[in-house]
Design goal:
By secondary structure, the protein is an all-beta fold. It is built from no helices and eleven strands.
Amino acid sequence: QVQLLESGGGSVQAGGSLRLSCSSDTDISKSCVAWFRQRPGEARDRLATIDGRDQTTYADSAKGRFTISRDNAKRILYLQMDDLMPEDSGMYYCAKDRRWGIYSCQRPASDYDYWGQGTQVAVSS
């Protein structure tokens, strides 16, 4: 049983920043790991991914403002969010694919195997 635990969410005014963390009890360096956002009543949207070759991808809404990174030794995944906007509000989840050697991480939420409990982000105007 792989456990992921998000933290770092909160309330912030537009233009502010937050840094989300996702702690894993297993290695995160060799597989796809990702951040998703879900708004009430909507599907989970993929925002950022990083693969075992350290290549990253971003959704258009995140590119230029969000940065995904990880500390492999500490087994922590990060999402640095800058210049936040009200539309960035939602529940943020980290997710991990159990498979190694996968270098195409732009896949739907259903393809990811392990999920954290989520951390809430609220951006006010």
